[in-house]
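Extended Data, record DUF2029 domain-containing protein
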Amino acid sequence: MVINRYFKIALIVAAIFYAYTSARNAHDFEVFVDAGSKIIQGKNIYTPPFAQDLQYYYSPLCALLLAPFSGLPIIISQLLWIGFSYFLLYRIWILVIVYFDTSQLSKKQMQLWFIISLFLSLRFILVDIGYVQMTIFILWATLESIQLIRRDRYILGSALLALAINIKLLPLAFVFYLLYRNKVKAAVSCCVFYLVFLFLPALYLGWQRNLDLIHNWFTLINPGNKEWTIEAEDGPNSLVALIPVYLMDTTGVLTFKRNFVNLPFHQVSLILNVVRLFFVLLTFAFLRTFPFKAVKSTIRQFWEMSYIFIAVPLLYPHQQQYAFVYIIPALVYLSYYVMINWNMIKQKVSIPLWIVIFVIGVNFSPLIGRDVISGYAFEVLLYVRILPVATILLIPILWICRPKDELKTADQ
């Protein structure tokens, strides 16, 4: 009990210190707030100049919602957003654990589960908070909306999911998941709310100006744009950043070669899209049923969604490290599975396999930090795209750790 209290105090102190440090160094949230300032001044939020010289990629509605922050000193607005993000992290944990049967866990096991999950998630949480980004909000909105829909609160759940999609497209895959799991009313409502949120800013901006901004936005984020086909610079970690740099000659921050062949652009593009299609089709292996069939097991639902949470940041282009906050539910599921089945796992897993698991798992920990392994080593890992490789390797691990009893019962 004393250790638990001291751990909480240490966690709170560290969180406050990190929040202040992050807010003092203006980062991505300044770009969002700047867009809010520009939109109420009648300027185009998708053309230069930009705060931090960073392109604004989010929706007109997002800029309008953040406009009130533009009247505050940037450190205050960033502290407020970070504080809100901390609350959302707490809420995410509450939303996640309802899928699991925690009655069989002791208090010590619950604490251990939380600590392991936090350790594996901390790298991405720190990056998201450090850049004062929005992925924690997007993850919360996804989980909260699904939970509301599960409780038959379709309107509120669909509206929240549509808002998250309007801000950033990451949760779009869950509309198809809802449709597949026979939540047709929720999926259709989400599409309706998305259209409402798309044109809602017209009440303030006027119809034509809102249409112009939507056109600018869709042109900017069009996945057919060439810049979303090859991302050779350091930072992005999706399949778009991983596959091309190994199949054609590209220029990155470091000078040593990454590609083992040198294929023409059209072949690389074809291979990339085939791999993307494979990950999309792999979803059906995790769903394991025909469309429009609901499943009752909550842990099975969470296992299914865990795959989607992994696949989404891999499939979408231009996904930075903070986008991998989205895989946190999968890390929580795997932590639970290993803890519950530890006696069986330790008998079956060999030492070489433990080494492989450790090498994969360390990529999701704060041990892979610029200040821990040195700046150069960190750049090398970014350059050779270790994060997306490790994330892909999570998929077979998630498959092996499937809830076999629940799946067997449902398949009978």
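Summary. The chain has 21 helices and no strands.
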